[in-house]
């Protein structure tokens, strides 16, 4: 019984900690969102599509090092796993955070033509959705049909542009992920405290019943002993 | 012309990371590696890489806001929307001229003491930012 009371205290305080961290993460996310939205605009407006003749794909998994936060990490990993099961050929995965690396393998030095970042987009305290953001390589951008409407571009400019925009996207995805993680941990710990509470009630009941049974049995033994004399 | 202007630096007490979030403005002047240029509505779509310097935003109400950027990207799309994503940015009137000179002299001494190619390149970038910073506050 002592142990259960203890663990409910732990989950309760973890919930408090993540509530505090969550409010900070949300504040930072609010500032970071325009960065991500702005960086994504070009890809959407220029209608860049992954090339059909170059199937080399890259998937970036955005998770963190810490567990105990519900299904935040598993939902990212599950989405990638489903994709790999469909076609694992020509696909490489880069993992951010220990949680996804535990399941997926990290690889380097790979020429990709199109890729995506899988991350948890924060919606509200109680919900997030696992989403994907596209990223493209220099070649894919340079051969995109709608690129010709963009004026005075050379490869240097596009290269620097892409590097910075990828950095912005990752920055943004990390912020989204951190916020989802904290909010999810808050809910998970709240549930854990509730479950522990229920368990404490049940165990206290069993404990009292057993104690009663022992006392009653001893009484019966004494009484029947006395009446036999 | 819708402008998104955001930066990746930490939020401090005085400054805010997001300067404009889809706000309509009249004109934006940006310093880029292919030269400084002004963006008016219906500018031809283009991409550019920001150079350390001052971005001037001419708001619809007539106010002109000057913001220093260290580096970043500017995107102009064919629907006349503009996105400026900066690595670090701060309003020019919040910059401290003495601190700016400190940054420059520190970067210069780092450049002279840098031994590896990478350290040299990093210090050179810091000097470039520092020079632009000093110029911006003058």
Automatic annotation (TrEMBL), chain A:
It comes from the Eukaryota. SUPFAM superfamilies: ATP synthase (F1-ATPase), gamma subunit. GO terms for molecular function: proton-transporting ATP synthase activity, rotational mechanism. It is a peripheral membrane protein. It is found in: Membrane. The keyword Transport applies. Keywords: ATP synthesis, CF(1), Hydrogen ion transport, Ion transport, Membrane, Transport. GO terms for cellular component: proton-transporting ATP synthase complex. The keyword Membrane applies. It holds the Pfam family ATP-synt. Its main location: membrane. Belongs to the ATPase gamma chain family. This is F-ATPase gamma subunit.
Automatic annotation (TrEMBL), chain B:
It is found in: Mitochondrion inner membrane. Keywords: Acetylation, ATP synthesis, CF(1), Hydrogen ion transport, Ion transport, Membrane, Mitochondrion, Mitochondrion inner membrane, Transit peptide, Transport. Gene3D superfamilies: ATP synthase delta/epsilon subunit, C-terminal domain, F0F1 ATP synthase delta/epsilon subunit, N-terminal. Its main location: mitochondrion. GO terms for cellular component: mitochondrial inner membrane; proton-transporting ATP synthase complex. Residues 95-136 form the F1F0-ATP synthase delta subunit C-terminal domain. GO terms for molecular function: proton-transporting ATP synthase activity, rotational mechanism. InterPro entries: ATP_F1_dsu/esu_C_sf, ATP_synth_F1_dsu/esu, ATP_synth_F1_dsu/esu_N, ATPD_C_metazoa, ATPsynth_dsu/esu_N. Signal peptide: none annotated. It comes from the Eukaryota. Pfam families: ATP-synt_DE_N (PF02823), ATPD_C_metazoa (PF21335). Residues 16-89 form the ATP synthase F1 complex delta/epsilon subunit N-terminal domain. Belongs to the ATPase epsilon chain family. Subunit delta, of the mitochondrial membrane ATP synthase complex (F(1)F(0) ATP synthase or Complex V) that produces ATP from ADP in the presence of a proton gradient across the membrane which is generated by electron transport complexes of the respiratory chain. ATP synthase complex consist of a soluble F(1) head domain - the catalytic core - and a membrane F(1) domain - the membrane proton channel. These two domains are linked by a central stalk rotating inside the F(1) region and a stationary peripheral stalk. Component of the ATP synthase complex composed at least of ATP5F1A/subunit alpha, ATP5F1B/subunit beta, ATP5MC1/subunit c (homooctomer), MT-ATP6/subunit a, MT-ATP8/subunit 8, ATP5ME/subunit e, ATP5MF/subunit f, ATP5MG/subunit g, ATP5MK/subunit k, ATP5MJ/subunit j, ATP5F1C/subunit gamma, ATP5F1D/subunit delta, ATP5F1E/subunit epsilon, ATP5PF/subunit F6, ATP5PB/subunit b, ATP5PD/subunit d, ATP5PO/subunit OSCP. NCBIfam families: ATP_synt_epsi. This is ATP synthase F(1) complex subunit delta, mitochondrial. It comes from Popillia japonica (Japanese beetle).
């Amino acid at each position: 019984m002592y142990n259960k009371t203890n663990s409910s205290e732990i989950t309760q305080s973890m919930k408090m900690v993540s509530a505090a961290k969550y409010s900070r993460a949300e504040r930072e996310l609010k500032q970071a969102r325009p960065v991500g939205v702005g960086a994504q605009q070009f890809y959407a407006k220029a209608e860049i599509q992954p090339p059909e003749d170059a199937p080399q794909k890259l998937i970036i998994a955005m998770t963190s090092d810490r567990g105990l936060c519900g299904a935040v990490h598993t939902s990212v990993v599950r989405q990638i796993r489903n994709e790999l099961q469909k076609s694992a050929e020509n696909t490489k995965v880069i993992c951010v955070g220990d949680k996804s690396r535990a399941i997926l393998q990290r690889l380097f030095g790979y020429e990709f033509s199109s890729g995506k970042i899988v991350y948890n987009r924060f919606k509200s305290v109680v919900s997030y959705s696992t989403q994907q953001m596209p990223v493209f390589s220099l070649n894919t951008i340079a051969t995109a049909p709608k690129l010709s409407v963009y004026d005075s571009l050379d490869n240097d400019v596009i290269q620097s542009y892409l590097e910075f925009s990828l950095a912005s996207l990752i920055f943004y995805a990390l912020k989204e992920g951190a916020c989802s993680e904290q909010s999810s941990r808050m809910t998970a710990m709240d549930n854990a405290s509730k479950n522990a509470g229920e368990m404490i009630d049940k165990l206290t009941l069993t404990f009292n019943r057993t104690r009663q049974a022992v006392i009653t049995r001893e009484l019966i033994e004494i009484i029947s002993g006395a009446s036999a004399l | 012309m819708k402008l998104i202007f955001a930066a990746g630096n930490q939020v401090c007490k005085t400054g805010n990371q997001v300067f404009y979030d889809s706000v309509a403005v009249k004109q934006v002047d940006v310093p880029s590696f292919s030269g400084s240029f002004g963006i008016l509505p219906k500018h031809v779509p283009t991409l550019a890489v920001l150079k350390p310097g001052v971005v001037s935003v001419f708001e619809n109400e007539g106010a002109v806001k000057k913001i220093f950027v260290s580096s970043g990207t500017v995107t102009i799309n064919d629907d006349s929307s503009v996105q400026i994503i900066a690595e670090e940015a701060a309003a020019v009137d919040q910059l401290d001229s003495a601190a700016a000179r400190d940054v420059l002299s520190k970067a210069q001494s780092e450049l002279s003491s840098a031994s590896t190619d990478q350290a040299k390149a990093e210090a050179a970038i810091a000097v470039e930012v520092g020079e632009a910073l000093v110029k911006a506050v003058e």
